Amino acid sequence: MNASTEGSSAGDDDAAELLTPAEVARMFHVDPKTVTRWAQAGKLSYMRTLGGHRRYRRDEVVDLLRDSTQDG
Question: Name one Pfam family in it (predicted).
Answer without folding.
Answer: HTH_17
